[in-house]
Structures are given as C-alpha cells and as structure tokens.
Amino acid sequence: MNKRQEKRRISARRWLVERYYRDNRCHYCGAHTYLFDGPLKATVDHKVPRADRRWNHWTNYALACWTCNQEKGAMPYREYVTWKSRAALSETPSSPSQEGGDGHD
C-alpha cells in the first residue's frame, strides 16, 4: 500500500468518532446517539452488509444507534429503510384519552 492509499484508508473506529462529533444522530431513526453502552450507543453500520464481502470501505459506513444496527442485521440498506419506514407508518399515535388523560392540564 502506497502513502496515498494509506492516507485515504480510514478505520471504522476513526470514522465513527469523526462522524459522531459532526452529527451524533442515528442514520435510520434520527435519535441522538451516545458513546456509552445502551440502546442508543453509537455504532458503525455497513449499509451493504459485510456478509456480502463486497464493500468494506468508509463510504459504506453509517452511524447507527445500537437498536437500529441490531434490527438491520445483515439486511440490505434499501430493504431495511423500506421496512423501517413502513413500521413507522403503521404505528398509530395514541389519543390523549387512550393515555389516561383528557388532554387538558
């Protein structure tokens, strides 16, 4: 590997830290991510799954919360985004009466 290739090469960990400090939101659900353990822990997701062994490059990385990364698993990017948007549309917001209040405080 020559110096130019070495300079262009970026590790997943370095990419995560740089991306986190630039925009610490999950690529899929938009939630703020954090650098500590928990469901909103910042993780690196591969848009094209590593299982395909075709594309392990920083342009294939996405900052994702731990929950979305686990949900996506080895699912292809477009398939997961479609599934996620359909799931969000199928969730019906509850009315104030269903939450136990009348909406007036």
Structural notes for this entry:
The protein is an alpha+beta fold and 105 residues long. It has a domain at 8-48 and 56-86: Orthogonal Bundle (DNA Binding (I), subunit A), CATH 1.10.30. It is 36% helix and 10% strand. A two-stranded antiparallel sheet has the order 1-2. The longest helix is centred in the last third of the chain and has 14 residues, at 77-90. The radius of gyration is 18 Å and the shape is globular.
For the structure shown, list the relevant keywords.
single chain, 105 residues, alpha+beta, DNA Binding (I), subunit A, two-stranded antiparallel sheet, 4 helices, 2 strands, 36% helix
Topology (SSEs and partners):
Elements: H1 3-8, H2 12-22, E1 42-46, E2 61-65, H3 66-72, H4 77-90
Antiparallel strand pairs: 1-2
Compute the average pLDDT: 76
Q: What low-confidence regions span 5 or more consecutive residues with pLDDT below 50?
A: 95-99
Count every beta strand, where a strand is a DSSP E run of 2 or more residues: 2
CATH architecture of the domain at 8-48 and 56-86: Orthogonal Bundle
Please state the structural category.
alpha+beta
Question: DSSP strand (E) fraction?
Answer: 5-15%
CATH class category name of the domain at 8-48 and 56-86: Mainly Alpha
Q: How many DSSP helices?
A: 4
Element order: H for helix, E for strand: HHEEHH
Distance between the termini: 66 Å
* CATH third-tier fold name of the domain at 8-48 and 56-86: DNA Binding (I), subunit A
What is the helical fraction, as a range of percent? 25-40%
Bulk shape: globular
Rounded radius of gyration (Å): 18 Å
For the biggest β-sheet, the strand order reads 1-2
Largest sheet: 2 strands, antiparallel
